[in-house]
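[recover] target loaded
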């Protein structure tokens, strides 16, 4: 049976229309594809993605810039990273 795990691949700030700020995390499911007898410890392929706030609230991705925090029924927009 293949081992599965998740890795955080991104985290960014998002803001709601009311001015509240949230940290949104992007997680990707990984599936071990290491061949039996291989010296490689673990080799993963990406699976599905999920999004949540840093507090663990589930989020739906609406588009690249907009996310819904499900439990709050609140849409938030990604804040452009400053240089």
């Amino acid at each position: 049976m293949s081992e599965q795990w998740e890795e955080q691949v991104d985290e960014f700030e998002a803001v709601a229309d009311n001015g509240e700020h949230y940290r949104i995390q992007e997680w990707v499911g990984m599936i071990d594809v290491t061949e039996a007898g291989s010296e490689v410890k673990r080799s993963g392929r990406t699976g599905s993605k999920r999004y949540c706030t840093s507090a663990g609230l589930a989020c739906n991705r609406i588009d690249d810039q907009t996310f819904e925090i499900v439990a709050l029924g609140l849409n938030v927009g990604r804040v452009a990273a400053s240089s």
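[recover] notes: The radius of gyration is 16 Å.
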